[in-house]
Specification:
about 200 residues, mainly alpha, TIM Barrel
């Protein structure tokens, strides 16, 4: 069984906490970067409790890449791509890829769609712009095998997860269906960020 470890958003705490642990076990990962927020605060979020977090800066991203980590795109601005105009999708997909490849001299093969929202239009745009795959959160479709070959199914790990719940996600056995339902519910609640930003 092969497992890929991925991190969305590119927060600085990935470098501070996850990187040393994974380095100890010689386990690289993939980090999906929001290009407009490299080295900046997460102003794209709704900041519940007024808590701000820093994103990875360029030096930290370079260090991760040098240690074997893969750099992926999470768009330019962390906007949901569903419903955007063609030129806006281009900015989020193609321009972010171009920025990352030029800035870090790396090949960007994968795109993680903000908020896990993926549709056929986004997948086909990603294919056109040279991506090898698109990550999104639609586990029910993945479970049934109804998805485009460009779409990569992922199971998220949250602060509330225990070792047993993580094992259920990895093994795709007993308890996996509940983990799928939980992920869908949490992902649905992430729409609150979109709503909060829209009201500002």
């Amino acid at each position: 069984m092969a497992i890929a470890i991925t991190f969305d958003d590119g927060y600085q705490n990935i470098y501070e906490y996850a990187f040393p642990i994974l380095e100890e076990f010689s386990a690289p990962a993939t980090v999906f970067i929001i290009t407009d927020y490299i080295g900046k605060s997460n102003d794209w979020d709704s900041h519940l409790g007024w808590i701000h977090f820093r994103h990875l800066n360029s030096a930290e991203i370079v260090k991760l890449y040098e240690k074997g980590w893969e750099i992926g795109s999470h768009g330019k601005s962390h906007r949901s791509l569903v419903g955007l105009k063609t030129d806006e999708i281009w900015m989020e997909l193609a321009h972010s890829k171009e920025i990352l490849e030029k800035k870090f001299s790396c090949r960007v093969r994968y795109f993680a769609s903000p908020f896990g929202k993926v549709n056929h239009r986004i997948v086909e745009a990603a294919r056109q712009y040279g991506y090898s795959g698109v990550c999104g959160f639609y586990p029910f479709r993945y479970k049934k095998g109804i998805h485009n070959q460009m779409e990569l199914g992922r199971m998220a790990v949250y602060l509330t997860d225990s070792l047993s719940s993580i094992e259920a996600k990895v093994r795709n056995g007993k308890g996996f269906r509940w983990q799928m339902i939980k992920q869908n519910l949490i992902n649905f609640c992430s729409n609150a960020t979109l709503a909060a930003k829209a009201l500002k």
